[in-house]
Amino acid sequence: MQVIPTTEEARVKHEKEEMERLEMERIEKEKWQQLEVKDLERKNEELEELFLLERCFPEAEKLKRNNRLLSQWMHYIQCDGSPDPSVAQEINTFISLWKEETDETFEEVIAKSKLVLHLINKLKLTLLETPPHDLQDKDIAQYRGSILEMQELLHLKFDVATELLLRQASTLADLDTGNMEKVIQDENVTLYVWANLKKNPRYRNIRCSEIRTAFEIPRILATSDIALRLLHTHYDHVTPLHPVPTSCQLPTSMESHSVKDEANNVEGAISKEFQEEYKQPENERNSVQEEGIKVEEQGDTETQMDSTQEESEDTKYKLEMKLLSEIVSAAQLLLLENAAERTYFFEENEVDIFQFTSLGGVYHLDILELPPQCKPVKGWMIMEILKEGLQKYVYPPATTEDLETENAFPPVDVMLEVHKNVIFFENPTIARWDAEGKHWKTDGISNVFYKSGERLITFSLEIFGPITLIQDTHINMPYQSWELRPLDENQVRLTVTTVFTEIHIQIKGDLCMLASIKLKNKSHYSILEGKWMTLYSFIIALKEVGLNIFPTAHSHFYVVTNYKVPLVEMKAYRQMSLLSPAFAFGWSRWNMQCGSNNVVFKVSEHLTNEEPIQNSNWALLMFNGDRAQRLKIDEHSEAFSEAVKEETEFHSTVYHMVKDFASEGAMEKVRSSDCQFIDTLCHLLLSIRLLSYS
């Protein structure tokens, strides 16, 4: 028979449970306060040790500065005839001389374009790689101006070469069709030109099997003196250049100002001290008897001066490194800053360049007026050269009053081959360039059909001009998970898993490489695999093939993010990079629930490459920028809790938190790591933003 407790017994039981709960809370609070006091006692010591370790960042910055200067010097002593694009006089001379060259064939322009593209890419990398504090506004304006001028001149040269080719169309006519067809291509450019010499109204289906391109033209074009040109540039010189961060955008702190003032004061004091050491009283110069005394004093003075100089040089170096450390931190923080609001507005059908990215280059589709053909006369070739140069055929014409039917100017059906190196995770969208508005638009294009297996896209085009294929910039965001693990010395592998793909990136020294990618759990070969590149070249290359995992300041407007305070996020990436030679890090589901002031991630000591990391070896850390703690929960716990794991303590840094359970071998590996490797990895983590975009 079940005994039912009385009301009094239930009340007593409830009071007992409440007292036990309050006692547990008191004990936990006392323990927490003790941990806080202990953490506060050693905070300065830990931060000082971390500061010494983080000197690798300003040291790496100094090395990069030296490498930039060395690169300029190596270019100077090579004397290979190519200009230094960063020197205004050299690049302006190069552009002026090329403008004067006339009657270049398409093959000659393509050959020259390799150097031009190299110079453009070199300037773009200079703008990206040079930190804002080392770039003056006038340099940015000069570099951007040179880039735009070379881009425009290159396209003009292609137009002139096309005109030269079309003048000879009659001599290059196909024997079967009587029309001219020409294909010229290299790794950067593909040209297809078709000249309508016969004007046969029944010849409306134009196909080129060599580059898998086709046009279905209306009757009015089939009977006109026109040429069709497809100039596929595998690069994009149409989309406007993105703005470059300037030094005025760098966050400044009172500390950096005080460091600058301190450096200036020390330098002034040193200078004054040396001046007084060298100052000699005038009466010494006129006294022979005091010469011996002066020599002895001078010897003592020189000894003191050498000692003072050594101390001052050491002080000056420390201040220089502290100032450079402030500047580097501010530049890193700038990479994590989100735009406060949208300051841009787009018209109807205009492509949002912050949301979509052009991939696979630009297809310049043009209907051209056929220029007068060269004629053989008594062994000479007579050629009429039009002053206006290459002219575009206006289709449809501005006025259509003389035409009986409204459908006399139907759209032209086009088939194009998608660039083999580009990955589209969804069917691409086609956009056309609006020359008046200077932006991409999606109107005037219909009947789009994409054959992903054959990599062919067909569509109907109303208005000819540059077109491109666009994809959502953030299609691989947010990430589903990530893992960073060490390999050999100064070498790690970063794995980022998204909805569509799994990307494996290898970092070695100051270089990056795409190790492998998987699409829908199947291996997929990319042309980038196995190619070591500098960080910014690598980021650009990944974006260009459609593997964009690099958020911008505007990305949070288009992606559901897990917002983290930028300073906390930056400190986490810096310390993860410092520890990466001997520790693996991984994604944690609790990072979504710990709030914007905290980050949570997994960490495990990992010294052997071959061994997989067991789930039991992962420790769960939470960090708020000022305190690191090991959590009691694990990935399989039912709810999030900030409770500290038994027998662990608070620390002011992730480095010291990990040090508590790390082996001496692991910490020695961390302390002996290369500064350029740490800096490169940190910059990559700052660019991918694993903690706020997964």
Structure commentary:
- The protein has 694 residues and is of the alpha+beta class.
- Among the domains are: 88-157; 172-239 and 348-398 and 410-472, Chondroitinase Ac, Chain A, domain 3 (Sandwich), CATH 2.60.220; 481-692, no CATH class.
- The chain contains 15 helices and 24 strands.
- It has helices at residues 7-41, 43-53, 56-78, 88-100, 106-129, 137-167, 219-222, 254-278, 282-285, 291-334, 535-544, 566-579, 654-659, 664-671, 675-688; strands at 180-185, 189-195, 205-208, 213-216, 226-233, 356-369, 375-377, 380-382, 412-417, 429-434, 439-441, 445-451, 456-461, 465-472, 481-486, 491-497, 501-508, 511-519, 522-524, 533-534, 583-586, 599-605, 619-623, 628-630.
- The longest helix has 44 residues, at 291-334.
- The protein is elongated, with a radius of gyration of 34 Å.
- Mean pLDDT is 84; it is low at 252-260 and 266-295.
Key phrases:
694 residues, beta-tubulin binding, ten-stranded antiparallel sheet, IC97/Casc1_N, 38% helix, alpha+beta, 20% strand, Chondroitinase Ac, Chain A, domain 3, seven-stranded antiparallel sheet
Q: Evaluate the radius of gyration.
A: 34 Å
Low-confidence parts: 252-260, 266-295
Number of strands: 24
Question: Which oligomeric form is depicted?
Answer: single chain
**Structural class per helix/strand content?**
alpha+beta
Percent of residues in helices: 25-40%
TL;DR of this structure?
This protein has 694 residues and is an alpha+beta fold. Helix content is 38%, strand content 20%.
